[in-house]
What does this fold into?
Amino acid sequence: MTIVRNPFDAGGYSLAEMTQAINILPNLYTRLGQIGLFRFEGVTQRSVIIEQYEGVLNLLPSVPLGGPSTVGTREGRSMRSFALPWIPHDDVILPGDIQGQPALGAFDAADPLVEVMNRKLQLMRRKHAQTREYMEMNALRGIVKDGAGTTLYNYFTEFGLAQISVDFLLGTAGTLVQSKVREVLRAIEDNLLGESMSDVHALVSREFFDKLIVHPKTEEAYKFYAATGAQPLRQDVRRNFPFAGIVFEEYSGTVTLSTKVTERLVPANEGIAFPLGTMDTFTTYGGPANLLEAANTLGLPLYARQHLDEKGRWIDLMTEASILPVNKRPRIAIRIHTSN
It folds into this structure.
């Protein structure tokens, strides 16, 4: 991505240009983004109404003003309205950022202002991606948290659902690990509720992974996999271990919250197992920017704009996102852990 127009000319970049530029930058952080678990869906409002029916959460459609409303009073149904968290993040380009670089318009030299702006946008993009990863990892567990680690919504408590948890007891030599895996698989299958899947994946902490691969019931299987399937001389075999129908992947991602506290995305001795290949279970809803020109438009994953100080002293770079990740079948993501 290269911005080619001078921001000092005729008002600089429009909201659409800056937004397009930042959204096409590569996402360098997220594991869930690589898996493609959560699909993005834009909505035209800054809040969504979610209905729960028999354990499935659905987004209710909007209707024309005065039109017939949706019905949420039938037995077994409940509705809640959720505001999409607003996540603004700003930066600034100062004269010192380009001081000593080739002047604007210098022959056969990259525009230093363009380079600085690209670099700033890339950093801002990564911060938003990290925030989205944090929110989506928590949404897998049925919880929405903001960048300060504050719980905004708990879908289990909001809709009276219970999370499924399986203790693998990996500290006990006689534990039948295959039976624990089957328990997880059957729990997922029982709660698909009309959904489909292709495989089951589990992101686990390093502590869980280490105990899993040395357990007497799995050690030989892991040695065989490491020696044949994973090509251990070329690959880091810590990363994953397919066993009895689940691919266990060590995931040691961490984030630094706005409070400067570091938080692991997967707690120690825990993991989360979830299906892949679903059609409509994991969705991140995005609302429009908090700007007049974006009102009532379909939301985008991320917005960016710039503003030149009237005296030419700096350029403000402003970004924002309004996203709400939803696991529409909260009981389909199984908490796995080992208590010993």
About this structure: The mean pLDDT is 85. Residues 39 and 66 are 31 Å apart (CA to CA).
